[in-house]
Amino acid sequence: MQIPAPDAHQCVIGVAIALPSHYAAQVRAVREAAGDPMADVVPPHITLLPPTAVDVDSLDEVMRHLRNVAAGTQPFDVRLDQVGTFRPVSPVVYLGLRSGAQECDRLQMRVRDRRGPLARSLSFPFHPHVTLAHEVADEDLDLAAREGAELVMDFTVTKLHLYRHLERSLQPGRTDVEGAWEVAAAFAFGGSLVSVAETAEVGEVTGVPAASAPETTPVVSV
């Protein structure tokens, strides 16, 4: 994962669809079995906006933009059951979408709207997926592919999540290289409110405490 180096007035964020907690646990188990050091650092997700450095002062504008994107989006179904790889271009094994890919594509284009605060180009064409292993030995990538072939995930996407990257210096006791990702805010499609159970599920995936606030309220401080 390429993490941009922010300057003193910036932070690094990403926008993604978080997996339900029971599916996230399955993905983490595969990454751990493959020896992926990011297994406990990167919450399992479908990326909509890759790691991006933004001015801290622009975060309110970013959140308004994402709130508007979510309010104009209808829930859609996703099915993940297709193992793929980006080898030899990139040492990645992933679980791909059998359904929901077009909806994800439309959503990520709205997130990156050239008129909005998150306008940016992509290094590679958008390809929605959930990473099962990244930058490990070939035999471990093969193991992740075998384990991933047993996974089938069906769920309805009802919200998008804004993640913030925490540098290692902000994570006492951690030994990871890239730091951790935490949910900064979650935005419900159609402008609906989040339930206590739904917010708790996000906390289980990311380690962020649950809250019973509206989904457009930050879960942790940005």
Topology:
Layout: E1 10-18, H1 21-33, E2 45-55, H2 59-71, E3 76-85, E4 92-99, H3 101-111, E5 129-134, H4 138-148, E6 153-157, E7 159-166, E8 180-188, H5 196-206
Antiparallel strand pairs: 1-2, 1-7, 3-4, 3-6, 4-5, 7-8
Helix pairs in contact: 1-4
InterPro entries: 2H_phosphoesterase_YjcG-like, Cyclic_Pdiesterase
Keywords: Ligase
Pfam families: 2_5_RNA_ligase2
Strand order of the largest sheet: 2-1-7-8
Reported CATH architecture: Alpha-Beta Complex
Strand content: 25-35%
Q: Count of helices? A: 5
Number of domains: 1
Strand segment count: 8
- How are helices and strands ordered from N to C? EHEHEEHEHEEEH
Keywords: Ligase
Organism: Actinomyces johnsonii F0542
Protein name: Putative 2'-5' RNA ligase
GO molecular function: ligase activity
Q: Care to describe what's here?
A:
The chain is an alpha+beta fold and 222 residues long. The protein has a single domain, classed as Cyclic Phosphodiesterase, Chain: A. It contains five helices and eight strands. The longest helix has 13 residues. The C terminus is likely disordered. This is Putative 2'-5' RNA ligase.
